[in-house]
User: Fold these one by one.
Assistant:
Number 1:
Amino acid sequence: MPEKISFPTHHAVDHEAMKTTYHLRLCGADTQLLRSLACECIERIDELERKLSRYHDGGDVFRINHMQAGETLSISEEAHECLLQAMEASIHTAGLFNPTLGTMIEHRKTKQDGELPEPVGQLSIDPDKAVVTCIKPGRVIDLGGIGKGFTLDQLALYLKEWDIDGALLSAGASTHLALGRHSWPIDLSGVNDTLRIDLKNASISASGTTIQGSHIVSADRANDLSNHAPTRIWARSSSAAFSDAWSTALMLMNDTKIDLAPSQDRHLTTVFVERDGVLHTISPN
């Protein structure tokens, strides 16, 4: 059993959003300021959920997913930035992370009968303006693999404007982002093994099959999870959005590709993976 975790002295607040519990731990001498900042962060989380969730009627992603051919839609700067980061993450992961597979994800999560549906439709995202155009309807945006990490990054940008010592921002147990002068102990718990790491000015995200089962899908049907999927994997990055996306993509890789991944992308600093009941650390060569 690992020793009990001891965090730096902090002000803590929890908030339910995006189908998880956000844990905000803020450090500093001014308790009143920390409480005020925590309230602002909660409002920011709720605002981003409305904009990024495909289930929020009237939100940016909801409206994108209901566009007709030829329609052009103006969206919020936050949704635009998240979409651009999602597409960048797709490029860095060779398409294994894909934010446009909402129909396939829904089919898998709801355990529908039959094979996964083929992705259809085409969207165009303007790189310079917060505008999306529907070329062909049918493509469904789902930012569940990056939205929580993106939200933590946005909170960090806001908190860095204030005179606080640091913070640990968490989206459930799946993504943690540490900022400031403190180092935060994080336990990575597999089925039979636990590894404690120190997180400082970095993010770590987890994906696995032990809780949600086989829920990650790929546009490439050659990526069959059944033969090589790790039970649990973690990705560390300087960006919570990218650690979030990478943890998803790594679940679609075999052992050889996982071992090479940190050496092939600057956004991925470390991988932790459970193999045969033991947690292994994979760093760039």
Number 2:
Amino acid sequence: MPKSIIAEGKTTSEAIANGLKMLNTSKEKVNIKVLENHDKRSFFSILAPRIVKVEMTLKENEELESTRYKEKEIKVNKDELNLGKQKVDEFLSEFSKNFKDLTYKTELDLDNGFIRIIIDGEDSKALIGYRGEVLNSLQVILNSIANKDSKEKVRLTLNIGNYREKREKSLEELADKIAKTVLKTGKSVTLEPMMAYERKIIHNRLQSSNTVKTYSIGEEPHRRVVIAKK
């Protein structure tokens, strides 16, 4: 269950700042909900200091993931990894029979506790889809297959035609471009819905900016990144 707190302040900004200190985290790592005060204020209570309350909840782990898994050793039983790799390999072999007209090659290997899958070749783009939708769906399927009846969590990454690297570069360039627009106009910009790892690329790119800030709004699968002037 994600950790939640109620923070207070004289303004919404102050309440959020107090909450971030309590959670010892940054704004992009929490969901924020302003709690409305429905109590009627009398004439005399108007003179009393106004208190704003906000509910802050730490986001789920997947929201904080980067486009690439950290290159650190993850301890997973090698037998489980090899079994997972075998199940994925068998599925991909059957999968390719349905695409006999496509020319591509598949490589599987074990690296730092991950099953790493690389698909490349002349027709591999057909397995990427618009904005990586097919690639991401395929990764979810392969992950489920690798973990079926597994005693431990088996981690898996899929890359097709170097799409991950290209998409990361494209999103970083987009973040820089929108940041300049926001700084010039003073108006915030809300980007199109993105997957968690794509939103993380935007957040990471601009987290050290002294002029703009980023945060996410909405619910999955329509969650969006907002870039605003500090």
Number 3:
Amino acid sequence: MTAAAAQPVPATRLVLADDHRMLRDSLRRALEEHGFDVVGEAADGQEAVRLALALRPDVVLMDVSMPVLDGVEATRQLHRVAPDAQVVMLTMHADGDVMARAIQAGAVGYLVKDCSMDEVVGAIRLAASGESVLSPGLASSMLAEMGKADRAGSQGPIISAREEEVLQLVADGLSLPEVATTLFISIKTVKNHLASIYSKLDARDRTQAVLRAVRMGIIRLD
């Protein structure tokens, strides 16, 4: 008997939401060349919500400034009514406050439109696999401002000292194997610490855990 043929991995399903048709057309062509399945396009936030409910995409690539309903509010509604659709913001707004509002609304990614197509592709793949990505540079400044604003009112750490060490190293940009090597522990132990951190901070992934820990004054960004 021959082994059954492996089933092909289905392409990531995308909805593109941007009020500039030429940009949508360009994105569609480029993303389809990278193997994504663009199942719908929206010219405003309200249409993006409607399409996401109807088409159940894996990821919505969402602009911020759109008519009828802006991208942040559309993300908030999507997070409530179609939480399986991961939202990545792709916008001209290189603004930490806008990024913070988008992340709080439920976006798992935030990219500025001067990024490369490889960065867009990488962000979509991370979002589809449950990870988060923030635009380089802008993320650090936004997180630092959040930390300054909230540190004074923090009620103190709610995670253990070891968990704080792990999360601080993650915030510093170390990979899980690097964290394990630095702390002389196994990668499995690092993952266990992160799972505990996610539970205590009510975070879904590393980026959200770092966001909340900085906001609470538990860790810092240099």
Number 4:
Amino acid sequence: MTATIVTTDDELEQIAQLSHKNLRAKISEVQQKQQGFITWEYSFQLLKQMNDLCAHVIVKDKNIVVGYALVALKEASVFHKDLDTMMHHLATLQYKSKSLQQYKFYVMGQICVDENYRGKSVFQLLYQHHKKLFENSFDFIVTEISTGNMCSIHAHEKIGFKIIHTYRDTLDEWNVVLWDWK
């Protein structure tokens, strides 16, 4: 397995399929508790627009995308409605006594590993590659995780993410988590 960045439309299509397959609404409650879930569905078009700003990170087994970790730059909020909502909320938060907006950061738009590759270090490979690519350009990476997704919360804690805020919106209750690289 190899961690790399998206370079083809086929890889974006595979991400869209993996996203669709692992949506919270598509899997059972048992699967959600045991394996985790994702909340936002990504279309090929949205993935492409985001990837044009900054390439997404993927792990491949030969030619098959087995995991992805989407890079969501602040600039993507112009065309990504859910990210725009998230960015407005993040603008109200502070970290180390400074507004989040005073830092250079990007959002983990979503991370997902194919169910046949879970427990095989794909999650860690995705985040290690993010850090390798972006730690010299950004202070940290931030994302939101449903408080009901304990698998994801624990996996992110193992990487080094810390919860900096919790809030509820019309969709769910969320932990805002941050991985500080400085």
